[in-house]
Amino acid sequence: MPDPQGYGHRSLPLSRRFTYGVGHVLNDLCASMWFSYLLVYFHKVVNFSNVLAGQLLMVGQVSDALCTPFVGYESDRTSSGCGYGRRKIWHLVGSVCVACSFPFIFNLCITCSNSPDWAQFIYYAPFVVIFQFGWASTQISHLALIPDLVSSPSQRVELNAIRYGFTVLANVTVYAIAWLLLGLEHRSNHHDLSPADADEFRDLAFIVVGIGLLFSFIFHMGTKEPLRPSRADSIIEEQPTIQEDEESEPILKKKKRRRKMTWKCWLKEGQFYQVAVLYMCTRLMVNMTQVYMPLYLTDTLKLDKEYIATIPLVTYLSGFLSSFAMKAVNKFMGRKMTFFLGVLCVLFACDWMWVKDIGLQVYGVAVLLGIGGSTVLVTSLSMTADLIGENLESGAFVYGAMSFTDKLSNGLAVTLVQTLHPCSDVNNAICTPDPCDPVSSVCCSQCEAYYQQVMVYVPGCVGILALLTLATMIHKPIGIKTEGTMTEL
User: How far apart are CA 69 and CA 140, in angstroms?
Assistant: First the structure.
């Protein structure tokens, strides 16, 4: 029987907030490996060129970008079946796809590891596409559950903060396990990544999938999705009346009539595009710093490889701790000012990285990136939930559209950075220490400054774009729809 509060006042007890929060852990674990290790794995272990490794990541990002609007649209149209909610159905489908495909990505090509690079690329591409379809299905359905589960804006911020907290813990888990597998194996004297480390990446992939499936099981067992009411497809939804005395007509409050927002209506809504740009900028700032921080540490700062684990850990722990304050900060300062402060933290970190040879001051940069990234991510997701408001009939489409901008922009950005790399390996030659610097694996002096420029200019320029977009939203509260865009009676 549908929850009587399903589409009126909606709230969750603490235990249900926890079970909801762990529903994205499988995606978070796999995404951490995808962004942190995909390029270095395919370049150093599989021996793909910089460009080819970037193109494989681009295939994944484009696949995800194309899948997200489709998943969002279909998720909104799907009917609940056998007492199982429409969002949870798509979440289950996505989890199965992720679990079945991801281990193949971080495993050497079965029976074809010695084949030409183009042949191995064709082998890996289908697994990447299936993984990204599953990832999109899980992500969109999980996000779309937030407006379905709770109606209070503060509770939506809290769910996003809990969700992000588990995202941080998932990233910390991946880095800790990777450090155990790669750093504590004293099987040889080699200190750089090579094809000999293939087994460690394979084991890491299986471990994260196993942990993720456990948390997905907890999510499906503990999260009850309010079933879709019979009139959810109607043009108007009438909210319950509020009255003090059943026999006293004058004190009855007027029924609030809400009009339906279809996907066509959203495309005519100006705030839809503004929030999409903010979400895209948020993901670019967070993901690009995550992808290129290890290369900045090793190639630019020339720090020991142990810092590849410790610096990201500091970043994500800072983000995790700051996420606990997100509900209070958003309530006290508002969405827009909170987002503004988060972008400022990222810009300060970029300015700090512009200083040459900052050495161990990079820990301070990591703290700023963690706080800033956590703030803008939680707040941008809360802005998206506010934009949807009570228009739950098309909530998954909105999240799908936001994710479309995220995935496509990240894929294009990584491909561009890899293509412009001074050692882009246009001839498919692998970058080696000889005849380069005999001490480090950096190919040329230009490479040393390249990742510093990436870490400064990419998130810095994206942060400025986010602030400019935010400035256009000052005078209108998020979630106020233009009457002309709604479906008429």
Answer: 9
Tens of pLDDT along 332-345? 888 889 999 999 99
Amino acid residing at 367:
V
Helix (H/G/I), strand (E/B), else coil: 443: coil
Q: The tokens of 423 are what?
A: 């050692």
Residue range 161-201, pLDDT digits in tens: 788 778 878 988 998 888 788 766 544 455 566 787 788 88
For residues 63-80, average pLDDT: 79
Beta carbons of 444 and 424 less than 8 angstroms apart: no
Q: Answer whether residue 282 shows pLDDT above 90.
A: yes
Cβ atoms of 392 and 8 closer than 8 Å: no
Ramachandran quadrant class, 16 (left: phi over 0; alpha: psi -120 to 50; beta: rest): alpha
Q: In which residue are the tokens 């082998």 written?
A: 123
**Is the separation of the CB atoms in 342 and 379 below 8 Å?**
yes
Give the predicted TM-score (pTM) of the model. Answer: 0.73
Which residues, listed in sequence order, are joined to residue 238 by a DSSP beta bridge?
257
**Rg of the chain's alpha carbons, rounded to an integer?**
23
Q: How far apart are CA 297 and CA 288, in angstroms?
A: 14
Q: Report the alpha-carbon distance of residue 71 to residue 94 in Å, rounded.
A: 10
Residue type, 82: C
Rounded to whole angstroms, how far apart are CA atoms 257 and 238?
A: 5
Write out 320-349 in H/E/C secondary structure. Answer: HHHHCCHHHHHHHHCHHHHHHHHHHHHHHH
Q: What is the DSSP letter of 244?
A: S
- What's the rounded Cα separation, in Å, for the pair 300 and 328? 38
Per-residue pLDDT at 435 exceeds 60: no
What are the Cα distances from residue 262, in Å, to 84, 376, 392? 24, 28, 10
Preceding omega of 435 cis (within 30 degrees of 0): yes
Helices (H), 41-113: 50-77, 86-105
Tell which residue, 240, 278, 265, has the closest CA to residue 395. Answer: 265
437-457 tens-digit pLDDT: 434 444 556 677 888 899 999
